[in-house]
């Protein structure tokens, strides 16, 4: 993996620590099921925030509320102080990019094309300019390609730029999702289980990648079941249990919280058979 | 949105690699080779003999010393099989037809020869009433081609690996219990040829001038083969021709020849495109026959419309079941401003460019009107609405006759006597002599339509390879992910829909003039004569979704084959459906696959173990809860 950092063309950076994303009172109901209950979460610039919780806790649903894929039943999400409309493309345009837990690449497009699609919000060329192909079009296209190649270099996929996305090994597909999300030049990157199904080396490489992303001035909100990964990486961790935010704080605080341990192990009287199990990891990660 | 861990997917979907090389008939190597070559020689010799006594059989096969009719198919098939076999046997100088020295290529070409020869022999016996009508030559041909095929079967053939002994075949359902069924099934599975990973020498290393020469020769040959097929006088001969060409191309592909040619056209893109256009423009000169020029225009029109539909269906993944209505809108718009005395504006006669723009604009407006309310929805709504729109268009046009509704389109009688176009003083309705050639009315329209087709091809390729085209494909691949990447799904789909409609409208303006009149009937969902929406859709699916040449090839095949095989006329829709089912089952990517080329170029790296499928729909439900 390379650690060269491509230059970031949008330097409108707020000072570290200013609130970037503010979700307040987010509630998501599916019929009788309340998947997310009144969750508040703030992500500040320059931060890596973790979101953990047992399976079915509502983490992915919360992500979908943030990115406009779901319209929250109640609550608002604002980014850099303005309330986001619940439309995915507008959220991305505003500066929030995401990856998916169940990889959702454009399978029959090449690796490079996948990243180019990610550039959509940062380019303007419409149908007419594609048909006429004036010098402006060629310049924009060349710039997009150069930027996409930079990102592939950054994620270590440059050698496979012409491969179809569906032919990549699993770990590289996850990386490509990150590269594609970064192509939209986000201020905040949402990662949904970026290391699920990866081996320890790949996980460590992803760790480095997330740090490198943060060093570019992009804040990261990451869902993960791999506790080592989370506690290595995050400045702050929020725990979601049955749709509710149980605890939020530094790694140490969360690690020692009784309620978190109980939530992962189940209620005390059920805990007997789960003796050997630690708070680390869910079954996705043991291959 | 369901989130399913993929950790268990690898075990379930182990990549199906590996192969085995084994003959179908066990014979010593040299015996197999000798049988193959002897079969080829005997078959070639047989075509110089008489196959039947009477000249009643199409194509006169009674002459000795001079192959005619279907004998030509057998002759060509046997010669090519022989050369390909010599290539496979590593004879220097014969490798050019079989660059990967593949026995699979020999086998398939032997199959083509066997197919056309036995078809002929059986056809003679059936048509004339018994095998008594066969001359000795016919028997020699039958035996020779059989020997050729048997010899090829005894060559080592690259096939799928042996099935594991403990494999279970759930797909057989209740037949899984029957040992006979399972044995035949296993035999069939193991018989599947497997040559996708063949290696061929890189044709791009040839001398650049030689590369161009090859391109020119291949295109000229292609034109020759095409016109030869079109000029066949009988369905019998055309069917024999079809067998040789289809199976033969498959065989040459198995030997890597087509891939080498692809490498050449890929390297010399512009040159290949230019030569292709020249070859297409040479078609009316090569044929000099109004009937075939008419066929050419029709193929170009339906091919162009199918290409427009391909933007909507193939690139963007929107199912449009009423697309032919946009062709109708364009045709009617052009007819109304053509100066026909049956138009309500009979005094108005636009020049062609203005009529073309009118047709496009009208179709575009209708595209937006239909698309705007429906494209916000996902799934099947669009299919249903477009299906409805297609029918509504036809019925409305039928009723705008001054009796049931306002008089605009003359109802079922349509707008007749549309005057021929005249472009820069060149009257497309008249004959024009160029040297020794005469360009008739249809040849003129063919050339005009060729220009339109080129424009549409250009629009398609440029749009597909651009920001907007990528967003279409992204929406086709995964609309949720596409919108999460910042694509405004509705807007982008509307652009695709309107562009597709406009291109159909453009083709419609020419269509109106070629047919001299516009009537409501052709613009239906499905019917025995093209263009109808089902035909166009079939052309796209059959030819290859998302490709440029696919829909044009698909439209050409679907148009020409029923035209040439008159015995099909009663069963045309049935044959259509059958062809679609077979294609969907055995070659879902269409005749001309998309993107495969890139895949093949990276064969070595991509077959590495540990690759995983994308998406959660490939994970069996049983593992989903893991
Ligand atoms: N579209 C939907 N309709 C109905 N219920 C849903 C929908 N999406 C999610 N849910 C439910 O909401 C709950 C939270 O699911 P979610 O996918 O957000 O969990 P998660 O925390 O991401 O779990 P995991 O760690 O397994 O990914 C689950 O009970 C799920 O069944
Ligand atoms: Mg989840």
TrEMBL record, chain B:
GO cellular component: plasma membrane
PANTHER family cross-referenced by the UniProt entry: HIGH-AFFINITY BRANCHED-CHAIN AMINO ACID TRANSPORT PROTEIN BRAE, HIGH-AFFINITY BRANCHED-CHAIN AMINO ACID TRANSPORT SYSTEM PERMEASE
Annotated localization: Cell membrane
TM regions (residue ranges): 34-53, 73-93, 105-126, 138-157, 213-231, 237-258, 270-286, 292-316, 323-344, 350-372, 379-397, 445-464, 494-514, 534-559, 571-588
Gene Ontology terms, MF aspect: branched-chain amino acid transmembrane transporter activity
Membrane topology: Multi-pass membrane protein
Annotated stretches, region: Disordered: 602-626
Pfam families: BPD_transp_2
Protein name: Amino acid/amide ABC transporter membrane protein 2, HAAT family
Key words of the record: Cell membrane, Membrane, Transmembrane, Transmembrane helix
